[in-house]
Write a structure and sequence with these properties.
The complex is a heterodimer of chains A (about 120) and B (about 110). Chain A has no helices and 11 strands. Chain A has about 120 residues and is mainly β. In chain A, strands 2, 4, 5, 6, 9, 10 and 11 form a 7-stranded mixed sheet that branches. Chain B is an all-beta fold and about 110 residues long. Chain B starts with a strand and ends with a strand. The chains are: A mainly beta (about 120), B mainly beta (about 110).
Chain lengths: ~120, ~110
């Protein structure tokens, strides 16, 4: 299995809703990522998990809450989002050269994304 | 400051003609260099990477890229473009920590 699977593919939510995005990989990668991408723009890194521990939070608002229950799963919990949070949310995974070093140089595998619309 | 430049927002090419998408970077150390492609409403797909060794790297779908250390460039090329190559292309060197640093992206439009 060489894929990163994201569900759901599309999500429409109100500003008072709570929802979750899910990401799964079975490649044995120990680093997993959440990116946010606006149309025609490059992906912006949100969070990095390394060996199931949060290692990078790129100053993301607390209405986004990541969770890594195990080495294959990554969730992004959403609460009280704003319309400007509407975007494509991409999950990715990669091998980590050495535990805890943060050296993720082998390349990333991306999922197809969740298209989120906040109304 | 670390940066990645893709100087062209859009590249237009006729089918069958050569395609080049430019990328220059300013990243400390010896970065690894990647190209990703994104088709409409899809995630990013890996095309190729340069780690070390031969400066000419061959990747998926007939693409190749040439690493030029002195010019800090990593231009993506395809000898004969297809209409199906129309997509958004991202150059992405890694920073000293190994994180991908994405360029702004170049939209490729291949006309029949």
């Amino acid at each position: 299995d060489t894929e990163v699977t994201q569900t759901p593919k599309h999500l429409v939510m109100g500003m008072t809703n709570k929802k979750s995005l899910k990401c799964e990989q079975h490649m044995g990668h120990r680093a997993m990522y959440w990116y946010k991408q606006k149309a025609k723009k490059p992906p912006e890194l949100m969070f990095v998990y390394s060996y199931e521990k949060l290692s990078i939070n790129e100053s993301v608002p607390s209405r986004f809450s990541p969770e890594c229950p195990n080495s294959s799963l990554l969730n992004l919990h959403l609460h009280a989002l704003q319309p400007e949070d509407s975007a494509l949310y991409l999950c990715a995974s990669s091998q980590e050269l050495s535990p805890g070093t943060g050296a993720f140089n082998y390349g990333y595998t991306f999922g197809s994304g969740t298209r989120l619309t906040v109304v | 400051a670390q940066s990645v430049a893709q100087p062209e927002d859009q590249v237009n090419v006729a089918e069958g003609n050569p395609l080049t998408v430019k990328c220059t970077y300013s990243v400390s150390g010896n970065p690894y260099l990647f190209w990703y492609v994104q088709y409409p409403n899809r995630g990013l797909q890996f095309l190729l990477k340069y780690i070390t060794g031969d400066n000419l790297v061959k990747g998926s779908y007939g693409f190749e890229a040439e690493f030029n250390k002195s010019q800090t460039s990593f231009h993506l090329k395809k000898p004969s473009a297809l209409v199906s190559d129309s997509a958004l292309y991202f150059c992405a060197p890694t920073d000293s920590w190994g994180k991908l640093q994405f360029g702004a992206g170049t939209q490729v439009v291949v006309t029949p």
